[in-house]
Amino acid sequence: MDSVTIPVLVDQLVSGLAIGGVYALVALGFALIFGVLRVAQFAHGEVYMLVAFLVLTALPALPLGGFSQFGLVLVLALFLGATIGLAVERVVFRPLMAAPHLAAIISAIGLSIALQYLAAFLWGAELHPFVLNWAPGNLALGPATIPAFKVVIFVTALALLAGLQLVLRRTQLGRAIRATASDPETARLMGINTIRIIAAAFAVGSAFAGAAGVLVAALYGVVYSSMGIAALVKGYTATVIGGVGNLVGAVISGLLLGVFEVLLESYVSPKWSDAIIFALLIGVLVLRPQGLLGRAIPQRL
Amino acid sequence: MRRWRATPIRPGWPFLVLAILLPLLVQDPFLHRLLAVAALEAVLAVSLNLVLGYGGLISLGHAGFYGIGAYLTALLALHLGAPFLVTLPVAALAAAITGWIFARPILHLRGHYFAMATLALGEILVLVAYNWDAVTRGPSGLPGIPRAELFGWVATTHRDNYYLGLALLVLAIVVIRRFVDSPFGLSLIATRGDDQAAASIGTDVARVRTMAFALAAFFAGAAGALYAHYITFVSVEPFQLTHTIALLAMVAVGGIATIPGPIVGAVLLTLLPEVLRGLADLRMVLYGILLMLVIWLRPQGLLGQGRLFAGWRGRPPASLVPRRVTAEASSEERQTQPSTREEAGA
């Protein structure tokens, strides 16, 4: 156990915010897709994994130094994520538009299994190092020195989240997405092409998953074929804590989840931190069935 | 007047006879092993279907109950020398009680909140088994569990264990079918359609859901006991989320809310990876693709009931699209309506 000193604590908070930013990106994408389609995209973690692998493969072709490589990698990740998301929507979810809810979930699970093993087949099931040509060094923050890269990850995540909020609040597309999320039937009657909106939500949500994938790969320095499962569980957890369909809630709870996890790992027990988080999650759900930040449900049993 | 039944009666006897005769006619230990595994998977899928299909609740912690049964059996047999006839009921009851206690506070949760709570329970159970080294020996697991013994007969071969699994499966089918056809089961099905409407006509929604959840956990725990005695070793792998997800796939592929569906799904999805073994590394890729393909062609599952409209021929009829959305979102809409009214009033 680390002793609680200010520099260590600051370092851990930053680590927590960095990984929390990644969770927030995953959760936001998941929540966005869920919002318009009302179906849990259980292959969301595989989009994240696949983009990380594709970027890893493309890295040698991007021999840029420093920040420009990071920027290019991020743009590439967003683009790849959006492309995969569009394909997933078109191939897996659109055909099941009228099918029972569970059918879409199982189909997503099938996709998740297929992609996970495909990645293991193509790249191998072992850990692959993921190293960028960019080491931004350390930042002095009062008494603490913190790795600047973690701050960059956190800031990148926040910037993407803020960008999405801007799109959702200020543009015609965003308005259409929000309308579809709140009532698909009425949205359609108002002339919104909801099928196209669902595709757009998939593109944006999966782009975020892709960005989260490369950020986490750069943060931990590794990529592996089963990395999507943990991301999905964390993203799903953050979505539910935040209140399903509540995008801001998903972001806040993703960040909280990251910070909480790092603090529990350092000060309580690295072995038991996940179990404690899940136990707290059950507690939260029992006390606040609508999620920590969700809207109150007026009727209960 | 014919009594209305929730489950259409289909004669299961020919299949049971076939299930009994098959391993006697085909003397192949490899097939026997697959059948033994498939029987246990079928027990798990049938019991999960009670919660998922008839109760309409997505449970993502079912493998955790399987784990409770297996670990408890291992500990009882290894430390106390408890015989099979003790470990089996104790494992089943312990899983059922855990399910009962856990279900009570979370039953008012809806949709994904319920799924998340059960996922959290399953993960906690796995993490406890993985980290509580003093009792579970953590990642190394518990070896040396004695074989199941019934009045002097010891289940040593794969075939013996298959018959034990089959017996449990028959028991699970009979009990779950009776439960589904009982007033409790009909109430459970009513709560699936609309829990508030069911409550308004006097259904104790929390009670029937708790019973269904505990009953499903009971059979999962019993299957865990058989597993521990069969494999003679337990570690956390079979009790993880991935197994629960495989069980969900079995129920969905076979046909949700039917009695034979989960069994067919369990047998198919257990055999499938073996059939695909020739493909080596691409085996699981094809498994995932086939899973998607089955759902694509028959969204309600192979034996599932309900209208078959092929949504895969391009855009579904507009009138059909909102049906699924409405069915899924109806409870959420009901929740949000009053708050919208509040906003309008404010």
TrEMBL record, chain A:
InterPro entries for the chain: ABC_transp_permease, BCAA_transport_permease
Record keywords, A-Z: Amino-acid transport, Cell membrane, Membrane, Transmembrane, Transmembrane helix, Transport
Upper classification of the organism: Bacteria, Pseudomonadati, Thermomicrobiota, Thermomicrobia, Thermomicrobia incertae sedis
Protein name, entry field: Branched-chain amino acid ABC transporter permease
Bilayer topology term: Multi-pass membrane protein
Transmembrane segments annotated in the record for this chain: 12-35, 47-64, 70-88, 100-124, 144-168, 197-220, 240-264, 276-297
GO molecular function: transmembrane transporter activity
GO terms classed as biological process: amino acid transport
Family, similarity comment: Belongs to the binding-protein-dependent transport system permease family. LivHM subfamily.
Intracellular or extracellular location(s): Cell membrane
Main subcellular location of this protein, as a coarse class: membrane
PANTHER family to which the protein is assigned, alphabetical: AMINO ACID ABC TRANSPORTER PERMEASE PROTEIN, BRANCHED-CHAIN AMINO ACID TRANSPORT SYSTEM PERMEASE PROTEIN LIVH
Pfam families named in the record: BPD_transp_2
GO CC terms of this entry: plasma membrane
From TrEMBL, chain B:
Membrane-crossing segments per the record: 12-30, 36-57, 88-107, 114-132, 162-180, 212-233, 245-272, 284-303
Biased composition (Basic and acidic residues): 331-346
Keyword presence, Transferase: no
GO molecular function terms noted in the UniProt entry: branched-chain amino acid transmembrane transporter activity
Record key words, sorted: Cell membrane, Membrane, Transmembrane, Transmembrane helix
Location of the region described as Disordered in the Swiss-Prot/TrEMBL record: 320-346
Topological category with respect to the lipid bilayer: Multi-pass membrane protein
UniProt cross-references to CDD domains, sorted A to Z: TM_PBP1_LivM_like (cd06581)
Entry-linked Pfam families: BPD_transp_2
GO CC, alphabetical: plasma membrane
UniProt KW Membrane keyword: yes
Compartment(s) where it occurs, according to its Swiss-Prot or TrEMBL record: Cell membrane
Entry protein name: Branched-chain amino acid ABC transporter permease
Annotated organism of origin: Thermorudis peleae
